[in-house]
Every structure is written in structure tokens, then in C-alpha cells.
User: What shape does this take?
Amino acid sequence: MAGNRRLGCLSIFLFVALCASLFVNFLLMVAAFQRLGGSREAEPIPRFREILLQRGPSLDKIAVITMRGLISSSLPGSVSDSMVDDMRAALQQARDDSRVKAIVLEVDSPGGEVTASDAIYSALVKARARKPVVVYMDSLAASGGYYVSCGGKFLMANETTITGSIGVIIQTLNYEQLFNKVGLASVVFKSGKFKDMLNGARPITPEERDLVQNFIMKTYDKFLGIVAKERNLPADLLRNTIADGRILSGKEAFDNKLIDGLGELDDAFRKAKELGNAPDAKVVKYGPPFSLSRFLRIFGESESKIELQLPKQLVPQLETGRAYFLPSYYAP
Assistant: This one.
């Protein structure tokens, strides 16, 4: 009798498991057919999930958005094609959420591409027009990291933060002598004399050097103008003092009025609550939404081996011909 009961329970369990498996497979088939069908409906703006950092008695929120690593349109994002689009989407989500009373942008970046930095700065300015934005500079907020930070309403850093490095850099590699040693020669067909001006197989001409340097200085003037306008400082004073590419500590940045205050991340939260008139707000951090593919990939990538890899962004490889807001020590 007991054996029949166990067999009956096992049969019910197997039946339920089979039904659940069929239901999951049905959902996967529907999703696959929808992708194959090429649905033309507009995709919704990706939404980030909210991770609770500090509890609060009210429904008001302080949204924390993190920008880490190299600023580049070539780096993939968590919810969109690039990290630049991720930053835009996160700022828009915080801007459009009526319960978000202020934004804290946590920056830990050496900078990066000129255009990418400018795009995130512009998105930050749009968010600032709707609600207060406090920028907290973590270990590193140099060059493009500081450029982006200028879009905030209140800038804060730790005394030991590395920031500043106001400047622009383009690099190329000359391998002419190496080609000569191995007996190789570069053959170039071009429509104009400047078309291959960063060709590493030959020396750069004086005209090319002047052209690139002129581009660098115009881009630098834009950077300098942003800092002068946002920090209410004379451009000539900046140009002749701290805006020569040097790095500064957070304390030095505060003394030179590049930031508004010194403190820790919790101080930035308090400042955001003050500026947003939301003393009882909870603090939430934006993280990537749950994804079944990401969840499965975690298990797929876990192999029984130990591998030591240095982060790729520890020493970023600059691409020839791109302009960067980066400290000089990041150029290999």
C-alpha cells in the first residue's frame, strides 16, 4: 500500500514537471517566432533595475548611476549597444521618474574618447535641467572623466581622488625603421596629400603636424570652455595654470575651485537629498535588468580552471586617429 502511494506521488511529480517543461518550451518557441517574424513595434527604452542602498520612510528616491572605466562608444553596454547609450538611458530613466528627486553620478574613470565624453556630458546637462545632479568622483575622474563631471550641479571628491588632466591627446605609431629592417614597404594610393597623414610607415610632415596640432588645440579649447563656463573660472587663468594636462588630487581640485566639496559617497547622498528637498528619500542604484541569457551565460562560463587576466581597461590601447581626453600616463 505504501509502495503504491509512493509510486502515485512520483507519477504526479513527473507529470507536473513535464507540464512545466512543455510550458517553458512553448514560451521559448513563441519568443523565437517573434524574433524571426521581425516585429516592427518600437522597442521600449531599456530600464535599469533598482538596487536598494539606503532605506527611507518616503516614496522619494535618490538615483545612483555609476560610470566606470574607459569612456568609449566601442565598449558594449549592459542594456544597449554601448556604454554611452547605457549612460544616456540611465540618465533619462532617472530624469523621467517623478519619484527620483535627485541624481548621484559616481565617476571612476580615466576618461576616454572626446565625442563619447561630450555625449555623456550633454545627457548629464539635460538631466540637471530637470533635477539636481551631484557628481561624486571616486578614485579616478581625470580628463574625460572630469569633462563629464562638469555637467553636474554639485561636484564632490575624496581628498585623494585623482582628477584634472584637462587636455587632449592623439597618438600614432611610427614603424618605418622596423619596415626597413625586415624589407617591407608601404604602398599608398590617396586622393589628397593629407589622406594618410597618420601613416606609421613614413615620417609625419611639418604640414601634417601643424594640421593635427591645430585640431588638438581646437578640441582643447572646447574642453577649456566647458570647464570655464561650468566652474565660473576665467579661461585664460585655467590655460596658464592647472589646465595644462596635469593631474590633481581632490584636495588640490577643491582649492582651485574645480569641485565644490570634499567627502565620501555617503556625503554625496546627503547632498543630493538636500538639493532635492527629499530628506527621507531612499537611495537606489541602477543596475542591469535581469536577463535569462545573462543568467545562463554565468553558468556556461564557469569552468574548472583558474585563469589570471589583467583588466583590459587598466592600460587602454588607444586607437590610431582617435582623439582622447586621457592623462598622458594612460598612453602606452
Observations:
- The radius of gyration is 26 Å.
- The first strand starts at residue 49 and ends at 54.
- The longest helix spans residues 2-37.
